Amino acid sequence: MNATTPQAAQPLARYAAWRRAGDLVYLSGVIAVNPAAGQIIRSFNDIPVEATELIGRTGEFSSDTKDGPILAQSWYVLDSIRQTIESAGGQMSDVFKLVQYFKNLDHFPRYSRVRKLFFPGEPPASTVVEVSAMLPTADILIEVEATAWLPLR
Question: Are the CB atoms for 135 and 15 separated by under 8 Å?
Answer without folding.
Answer: no
